[in-house]
Design goal:
Number of domains: 1
Structural class: alpha+beta
Strand order of the largest sheet: 1-2-3-4-6-5
Largest sheet: 6 strands, mixed
Radius of gyration: 16 Å
Distance between the termini: 32 Å
Shape: globular
CATH class: Alpha Beta
Number of strands: 6
CATH superfamily: Gcn5-related N-acetyltransferase (GNAT)
Number of helices: 5
Strand content: 25-35%
Helix content: 25-40%
Length: 174
């Protein structure tokens, strides 16, 4: 909750709540969004902090956490529009995947995005995840239409190569 004001400001950078294929709260619903994320049983939400300003500029989560099969998904991810195509997503995903694979001992990580969100699909593929397929009619967009999800995953065996590429990519940002 301590990041509510920053996140309400961040979502206004690009009016992200108006994007039909993402689930970004409006500034007015940010408190309820954070509260819901906090109380979801199979979700651990994080604020994404810009290290240079100390302000929250977005959010991401572990969710669909399945300890018995050592699988989880990374999602509910959004950043202020001015941070798109920056080092932020690569850095966040590197941190999350490192923690999931190397600290928590998970074997598979999944990501999914709306079938029309081509920008997100390209971003996920740049991270090194492989496309598993499409799940038809599995979620509801913010405008109440039913949509399909493109699903991706990475296994622990694929992680070392992907991690090396992500570290190289981040080194090129500097």
């Amino acid at each position: 909750m301590s990041h509510t004001q920053d996140l309400a400001q961040a979502c206004q950078d690009g009016k992200l709540w108006e994007t039909v294929y993402t689930s970004v709260p409006s500034p007015e619903t940010m408190t309820a969004y954070i509260d819901k994320a906090y109380h979801m049983e199979d979700r651990i939400a994080f604020a994404v902090i810009d290290e240079t300003t100390g302000k929250a500029i977005g959010s991401t989560s572990f969710y669909n956490i399945m300890p018995m099969v050592k699988r989880l998904e990374i999602g509910y991810t959004w950043y202020a529009k001015s941070y798109w195509r920056s080092r932020v997503n690569t850095t966040c995903k590197l941190m999350l995947m490192t923690h999931a694979f190397e600290t928590l001992g998970y074997k598979t990580i999944g990501l999914r995005t709306d079938i029309i969100n081509k920008q997100s699909q390209r971003a996920i593929e740049r991270l090194g995840l492989l496309k598993d397929g499409i799940i038809r009619g599995d979620r509801i967009r913010q405008d109440d239409t039913i949509t399909d999800s493109v699903v991706y995953s990475m296994t622990i065996d694929e992680w070392p190569k992907a991690k090396t590429k992500l570290l190289e990519k981040l080194a090129n940002y500097e």
